[in-house]
């Protein structure tokens, strides 16, 4: 019996601590972004980097473990979320010198990673499943003389339309445009553009070419 009282007391103490910590975090958010984003639901564990380059609209929901990095040399706001954008646990969105623009009322499931180097634009009512990668850049690798990591990046950008359903474990590569009203099946590697009103699954085409140009 005493153990139950101890456990109950610990839980109540933790709950009170969580409330205080969340309240302090909310105050900080209003100070950083202004009152226009409230009401909001942003967990205190969310890691917001370069907040001056992040724009959040009303009713955005960011769950525990989310990381946002607004660093951009192309736009004032490297990350811009429209109303009711919802990121579940452990999503990682990094503008990476480019930008990530989400029009709103979109949902991203756990562990989604978006690299905005070449620019990523996502329309309304788009949902993205868990463990997806949207990577808007590539390493250049045309020289035998330099290591790949020293050859710089190629950045074309990625565009995803409205009302798109991206299944879990999907990878979308740089230079891809996905039209509106598309469904991308779970586990698909999307290496070429997809026209609107299209269902795509297992869309992997073998490509044979030299690694280096002669």
Would you write up a description of this structure?
Helix content is 15%, strand content 26%. The longest helix is centred in the first third of the chain and has 32 residues, at 2-33. The chain is built from 1 helix and 23 strands. Residues 205-212 have low confidence and may be disordered. 32% of the residues are buried. With 214 residues, the chain is an alpha/beta fold. The protein folds into 2 domains: 1-33; 38-200, Hexapeptide repeat proteins (UDP N-Acetylglucosamine Acyltransferase, domain 1), CATH 2.160.10.10. The protein has one helix at 2-33, and strands at residues 41-42, 47-49, 54-56, 61-62, 67-69, 79-81, 86-87, 92-94, 100-102, 107-108, 113-115, 120-122, 127-128, 133-135, 138-139, 153-154, 158-160, 165-166, 171-172, 177-178, 183-184, 189-190, 199-200.
């Amino acid at each position: 019996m005493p153990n139950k009282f101890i456990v109950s007391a610990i839980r109540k103490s933790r709950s009170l601590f969580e409330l205080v910590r969340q309240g302090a975090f909310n105050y900080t958010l209003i100070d950083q972004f202004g009152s226009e984003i409230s009401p909001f639901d942003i967990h205190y564990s969310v890691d917001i980097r370069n907040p001056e380059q992040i724009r959040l609209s009303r009713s955005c929901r960011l769950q525990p473990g989310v990381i946002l990095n607004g660093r951009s040399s192309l736009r004032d706001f490297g990350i811009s979320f429209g109303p009711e954008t919802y990121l579940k646990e452990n999503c990682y969105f990094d503008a990476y010198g480019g930008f990530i623009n989400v029009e709103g009322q979109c949902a991203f499931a756990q562990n989604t990673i978006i690299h905005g180097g070449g620019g990523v634009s996502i329309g309304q009512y788009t949902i993205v499943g868990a463990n997806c990668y949207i990577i808007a850049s590539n390493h250049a690798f045309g020289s035998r003389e330099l290591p790949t990591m020293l050859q710089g990046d190629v950045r074309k950008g990625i565009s995803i339309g409205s009302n798109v359903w991206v299944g879990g474990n999907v990878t979308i590569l740089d230079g891809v445009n996905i039209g509106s009203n598309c469904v991308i099946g779970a586990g698909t590697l999307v290496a070429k553009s997809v026209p609107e009103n299209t269902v795509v699954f297992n869309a992997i085409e073998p490509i044979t070419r030299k690694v280096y140009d002669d």
